[in-house]
């Protein structure tokens, strides 16, 4: 059995090396815990509703959930975002770039042309983007001559995905990109140079972004503090946990201001009396709370606390 498993890994690795785009089978092999719908390319298709609710999740909340699940390498900071107040949330389309090596680069370009790819290789991933995707690229931290996009490609990305990008590299045309309403860019630095001596190696394969491992279909949560790369099968848990925390915090603050409970009562494990009061408070204010009404009803039904 061990021999069979090693052979499977060997052939998966060989297939990655032989093609600049991972196959559906390879992506499914790497994301076995996802049991929901998938895109045609094999990436997990986390529901749009979860993506929309994810925008309200704090980085610290997502980090805490993932740590509790044993995922310790899913956050990366040290970015220079285009905007501090525009979150980037979506499904990762991953891209691996490396320093140019002509013999490998020529082979990649030949295969891309045979597969119907058009234009420069850094535009190939953009052609593959779907609504709700986030273009996530490891550009090996290159700044000078490592600008993966400018305002032309930025407009093309936003037209197809309506999200943004995360690049372990640089970007150019900061002023032009800032005019794309709703678009955000997480890069290491900004630089006016053009992209040179960089080759595309793979699309939709696992990549490393700083200290984080990123798989195609991971959910990206990019905010001022940094970027979380959330495994697809944990995305809903992150959202629901965040909503519960948000509601409990709001209830606690409200009751403290009213003087109904002491800080010691709210900061410790709640008594049954407080839990019952919380449930009643949810019902009484269900139309006014910062969480969808249907989700509050589901929380009350499941009693997750």
UniProtKB/TrEMBL annotation:
Taxonomic lineage from the root: Bacteria, Pseudomonadati, Bacteroidota, Flavobacteriia, Flavobacteriales
Molecular-function GO term, any one: metal ion binding
Q: Report if keyword Signal is assigned.
A: yes
Q: Where are the transmembrane segments?
A: none
UniProt KW keywords = Magnesium, Metal-binding, Signal
Question: Has UniProt tagged this entry with the keyword Metal-binding?
Answer: yes
Give residues annotated as binding substrate: 150-153, 172
Q: Which Pfam families match?
A: RraA-like (PF03737)
Q: Tell me what this protein is called.
A: Putative 4-hydroxy-4-methyl-2-oxoglutarate aldolase
Which superkingdom?
Answer: Bacteria
Q: InterPro entries from the xrefs?
A: RraA/RraA-like (IPR005493), RraA/RraA-like_sf (IPR036704)
Signal sequence, start to end: 1-17
List required co-factors: Mg(2+); a divalent metal cation
Binding residue positions for Mg(2+): 173
According to its UniProt entry, this protein's organism is: Maribacter algarum (ex Zhang et al. 2020)
């Amino acid at each position: 059995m061990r021999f069979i498993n090693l052979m499977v890994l060997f052939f998966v690795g060989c297939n990655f090396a032989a093609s600049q785009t991972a196959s559906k089978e390879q992506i499914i092999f790497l994301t076995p815990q996802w049991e929901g719908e998938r895109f045609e390319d094999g990436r997990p298709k986390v529901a749009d509703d979860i993506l929309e609710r994810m925008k309200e999740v704090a980085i610290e909340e997502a980090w805490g959930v993932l740590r509790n699940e044993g995922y310790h390498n899913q956050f990366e900071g040290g970015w220079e975002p285009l905007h501090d107040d525009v979150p980037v949330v979506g499904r990762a389309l991953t891209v691996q770039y490396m320093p140019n090596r002509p013999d490998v680069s020529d082979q990649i370009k030949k295969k891309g042309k045979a597969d119907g790819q058009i234009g420069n290789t850094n535009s190939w991933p953009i052609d593959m983007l779907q609504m709700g995707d986030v273009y996530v690229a490891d550009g090996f931290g290159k700044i000078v001559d490592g600008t993966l996009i400018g305002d032309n490609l930025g407009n093309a990305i936003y037209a197809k995905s309506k999200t943004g990008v995360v690049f372990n590299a640089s970007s150019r045309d900061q002023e032009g990109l800032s005019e794309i309403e709703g678009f955000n860019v997480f890069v290491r630095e900004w630089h006016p140079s053009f992209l040179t001596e960089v080759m595309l190696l793979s699309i939709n394969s696992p990549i490393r972004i700083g200290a984080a491992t990123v798989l195609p279909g991971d959910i990206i949560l990019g905010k001022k503090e940094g970027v979380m790369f959330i495994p697809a099968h944990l995305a809903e848990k992150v959202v629901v946990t965040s909503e519960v925390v948000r509601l409990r915090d709001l209830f606690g603050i409200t009751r403290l201001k009213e003087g109904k409970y002491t800080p010691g009562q709210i900061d410790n494990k709640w008594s049954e009396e407080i839990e019952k009061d919380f449930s009643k408070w949810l019902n009484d204010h269900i139309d006014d709370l910062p969480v969808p009404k249907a989700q509050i009803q589901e929380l009350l039904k499941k009693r997750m606390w």
